[in-house]
Design brief:
15 helices; Protein-Tyrosine Phosphatase, Chain A; alpha/beta; six-stranded mixed β-sheet; 25 strands; 492 residues; Udp-n-acetylmuramoylalanyl-d-glutamate--2,6- Diaminopimelate Ligase, Chain: A, domain 1
Length: 492
């Protein structure tokens, strides 16, 4: 690509060298530098790409995009230097140009919020697919482009990767692109370079506050609400206590959802349902719509996720039949994922891996009035001990039986982690057993199940590995739970 074309939408401060040249590749990782490439120097938490400029030039880079440039490093070099105010913003714009502005060929939907991004994103995807559309997805579960699936490290990948995935979606015939948008993604300009057609704001509560993330809740809220300045229409939770702050600077058209009658899409009653093959919720969607909805995932918060997805899709023009069909059968890997449900027993897996999410999960399941609420969990190795104490205490207080086991022990002994969990457990009168082998623990929960139990295997969710002594081996809670259910006659 010609450098002039690459720079069409880039506001830059200064150019040193020729603009009339060909760019062979766009890179932001110095290790991938190659002859004729354009290298964008990014400043990270631990590394600064500017420090690697000499190495990149030595590798043959033809263009350097940077916020500052030591002149002595490029003396007598045939290198074009583009100085910019913010190299992350520049990378987003350059990436969009490099891949041919693929977002303009798609209907883009961004979803932000403290909780519910993954579930809402999958719900939106399923509804649109039920309406006959081809949909791409980027988020915690990875990037899905037609039949292709790529694992992602961050909820919201780097801008270059987002544009690459958008490009691939367009190539394989996707009409829609749905993606989770984290506060870090907004802060680090990963979703610059295009405007979302639609945005969803699920909710907000204190999270991601600390070193390397956000200095305060106010900063966290500021960046989250930026989505409503980067989309054409926003769908927002009317019930959130910070609603007024969320929408005060919104530049888009707004549609709201919630229990409140003031919301555009609302409901005033929620029923908790359990029957063979189904454990979920039911409600009547009112306001701008008027039809019943069943959702194949438990919990009041999933009423909100479902309303958000329904409000967005109905606003787009999707029919109510697609909404009903999709939500009645939707599952989200590792998020309140029902593996088995009947009048005798319900078993599920969930990603809850800290005190807040564990408490929310167990409280949600209590609403289904189980004979016993059984929780299988552990805690990760080489991580905070405080989390272990807290999860132990919550499990002892809220579950009828806890089965404490391994969960990515990494370089620690499983027994030492369990001992820490027991510190919290011992503050309660809760019953528990210790089974270090996670496969055996899951099997024990089914073998000793009583009629009317709900069994929750939590902590790993969609993760398909166990990491022990630095070695990862395949392990998926859903698979192990299914094997145990077959072994003890619940499933065939």
């Amino acid at each position: 690509m010609r450098l002039e074309n690459l720079l069409e939408r880039i506001p830059y401060k200064k150019v040193q060298g020729e603009l009339d040249r060909e760019v062979t590749e766009l890179v932001f990782d110095s290790r991938k530098a190659c002859p004729g490439c354009a290298f964008v120097a990014l400043t990270g938490l631990r590394l600064d790409g500017h420090d690697y400029i000499p190495q990149v030039i030595e590798a043959g880079a033809g263009v350097i995009v940077a916020e500052h440039m030591p002149q002595e490093e490029i003396a007598d070099k045939e290198v074009t230097v583009i100085l910019v105010e913010d190299s992350r913003l520049a990378l987003a714009e350059l990436s969009a140009a490099w891949f041919g502005h693929p977002a303009e060929k798609l209907v883009t939907i961004g979803i932000t919020g403290t909780k519910g991004k993954t579930t809402t994103a999958v719900m939106v995807k399923r509804i649109l697919e039920a309406a006959g559309e081809k949909v791409g997805l980027i988020g915690t579960l990875g990037a899905f482009m037609g039949d292709e699936h790529v694992e992602t490290v961050n909820t919201t990948p780097e801008s270059y990767d987002i544009q690459k995935y958008f490009g691939r979606m367009a190539e394989v015939g996707c009409r829609y692109a749905v993606m989770e948008v984290s506060s870090q993604g907004l802060k680090m300009h990963r979703v610059d370079g295009f405007t979302f057609d639609y945005g969803i704001f699920t909710n907000i509560s204190p999270d991601h506050i600390g070193p390397g993330e956000h200095e305060s809740f106010e900063e966290y809220l500021f960046y989250k609400s930026q989505l409503l300045q980067r989309c054409r229409l926003g769908v927002v939770n009317r019930d959130d206590e910070h609603f007024a702050e969320i929408v005060k600077d919104a530049s888009c058209e707004l549609v709201t959802f919630g229990m409140s009658e003031e919301a555009d899409y609302c409901t005033d009653r929620v029923d908790y349902l359990t029957r063979h093959g189904f454990m979920g919720i039911a409600f009547h969607l009112s306001g701008r719509a008027n039809f019943p909805v069943e959702v194949n995932i438990p919990g009041l918060f999933n009423v909100y996720n479902a309303m958000a997805a329904a409000a967005l899709c109905l606003t787009i023009g999707t029919g109510e039949k697609a909404v009903q069909e999709a939500l009645k059968t939707v599952t989200v890997d590792g998020r309140m994922e029902i593996v088995y449900a009947s009048e005798k027993l319900a078993a599920l897996v969930d990603y809850a891996h800290n005190a807040v999410s564990m408490e929310s999960l167990l409280s949600t399941l209590r609403a289904y009035h189980p004979k016993r609420l059984v929780c299988v969990f552990g805690c990760g190795g080489n991580r905070s001990k405080l989390r272990r104490y807290e999860m132990g205490e919550i499990g002892g207080r809220m579950a009828d039986l806890c089965i404490i086991t391994a969960d990515n022990s990494r370089w620690e002994k499983v027994e030492d982690i369990i001992a820490d969990i027991r510190v919290g457990m011992d503050k309660t009168d809760g019953k528990f057993v210790e089974i270090p082998d996670r496969r055996e623990a899951i099997c024990y929960s089914i073998e000793h199940a009583e009629e009317g139990d709900i069994i929750a295997v939590i902590g790993k969710g969609h993760e398909d590995y166990q990491e022990i002594c630095g070695v990862r081996t395949h392990f998926l809670d859903r698979e192990e739970l299914q094997k145990a259910l077959v072994q003890y006659g619940y499933m065939q």
